[in-house]
Amino acid sequence: MKVQPYLFFDGRCEEALEFYRSAIGAKLGMVMRFKDNPEPPKDGAPGCGPGNENKIMHAEFTLGESLLMASDGYANGKPEFKGFCQSITTKDDAETKRIFDALAKGGTIQMPLGKTFFASSFGMVADRFGMPWMVITQSD
């Protein structure tokens, strides 16, 4: 069994993928746009309305060793991420700071990066899309 995050950016998927690529080194894999769907859209299907042909129906990207999937979903322009948090574990404090600072650019710091009883560096941030992240340095 495998569990992987599937993130819905509600019309901002391409922007998010580019942000994660340039900010934290995500590697883009497969991308399928709604116009590439070989089957006609079903009534009420997410994102399939007129004007959304170039929106992303499905994408895959990797961060380090992890595969994440993403979509524009209904493409309404207001992504909401509630009830979960992506967690990135790094090998050293410098990498933790670099990633935390990159995710915080245009976002909201929820817990400033700092030393805790469980890690030499830990912080929480919601990026510019509202995606919540925890960034932590691996304990030895």
Automatic annotation (TrEMBL):
CDD domains: PhnB_like (cd06588)
Highest taxon in the source lineage: Bacteria
Domain spans labelled PhnB-like: 2-136
Protein name as catalogued: VOC family protein
